[in-house]
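Quick illustration, no need to memorize.
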Amino acid sequence: GRVLSVETVPIPVECNNWSVDTEQSYWSDEHQKNNNMVFILRIYFEYGNTTREQLEIIDFIPRVQIWDAPLAVPIYESFSSLLKRSSDWLRDQAPGLRFLSCTTVDAPIDYAFNAESIKENLNSNQSSIDSRKMFYSKNNSTSATGATTGPSTPDKVNPLLTNEFSLKFLRLAVARPQEACPESHFPPNRDSVILNCKIFVPTKLANALNTNAPDYETVSTSKRKIEAWLMATGAKILSAETTVISIPFSSSSIATTVDSCLKSNSQVLGHYLTIYRIYLD
């Protein structure tokens, strides 16, 4: 057969039960928040003649910018910068590479935000997350230095605990011809790719009820806008994804939130918004 696309799916698993049910399609909010998380890879393929190619997954992780404020959260590379790096990587590959999919993955940061851990991370030139890691424990009792302590009372909770932040990284899936495969036997759709991304954000509507909660256009309305844009531009679609972002009421710019790779997992007053990323050539 032939691989069509690859996606990474987070699945909550109970702390005392290591089994992963890939057929389960519903979780309660309580189950989602209070249990460990496992990432699985879901591969979509079609049956047919065997293709002589191997699947590769390449992750682009945001880099930490210059950080000189020990009490502040560090600044990470933006999504648009990540996209440019991934596009440059695709451009530099040898002929024959087949693009499969591009998706974003939110992974909990493994270390606490304090001066010592950030400095160590920067000096060692390591990434803030290990994108190869597939299991994340729900560690609600980890101190800022990484030592395990007993349950903390709410007034003693450090806001910079491990797992309090997640980092979004970009995952490319490609199919590369096997070394023994001659170029004349390459499957179709092997043209070089210049990766771009068009992000569609639902439009905020006037709130007729005058409540604090904002109202946004429906999925159907967003879908019609996306269709109209694609028809008008004739853009070539490579892959697409629907993601949900959290927007605190204190945020002054949705665009900044959409382009940010760092996300706080703390429960803050705000709302969630569905956005659509269309990856184009």
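Confidence is low (pLDDT under 50) at residues 140-162.
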